[in-house]
Design goal:
263 residues
Amino acid sequence: MSSQQLQNSIISNQPSKKPKKKAYRFNIAADIALLKEIANIQPFFAAHGQTLKAWTSVAVNLCSSLNLEAETITTVNARARFESIYTTFKKDEMESLRASGTEEEFNEREQLMTDIHSLIEESEFIRLNVKEKKRSDEDKREVNGEILRNAALQRLSSKKKEIEVGETENGSESEDISDKSFSKKIRTRTSSSVLEENSHYLTSDSAMESKLIEIREAELQQQAEKLHLEREKWEMEKQERELHLKQGQQQLELLAKIIDKLK
């Protein structure tokens, strides 16, 4: 076998590389479909570790709504396109995206971005509140632990002084009692007293902490109810916008038919 034949044989036996799939090119209709899926699934509200799954659902549903083959729009494509639009929206430069499309489509895309922006702000507000609650609870535990330690030390110090005074005043009585027996009684009485007082202190502190937790939970419940009402309001406004757009499209179609008849 010649060297040329050997080279050709090696090349032919190598696995063929799959052609790199081109990234999907979004237009305004695809943008609107993407934003609708995001507004519906709301991946920014996903629990920890579930964000990727939520964005995958967005991509899968988007391909289905646009009648595209599976994975024509990947999770990475969908997320990257949204972040690009969102960055433009926050810079107040949505006019720069007016490459093609009708005025109604431009307005719908911008309105969807406005609604999604509000939802993202709500999700960030909730996350900050959760982090603040965790930090506050940790601080409370540290402070309460320090208070308990200091209080226990102060009580032990006070008991020690009381014992020293008692030993001085009762010097004559101690002649009939052995040193070993007296020390044992003192240690028993002191330990029992300190445990009793510490137990009372811990009970009071625990009750106070439980009350603070109840108050905080009530505040979080109120915030959750407020967010629920705001979301319901957003859903109603969304339905009104969709109805308005549908009516506008029907009027345009009717106007087009009238113009055709007049020709």
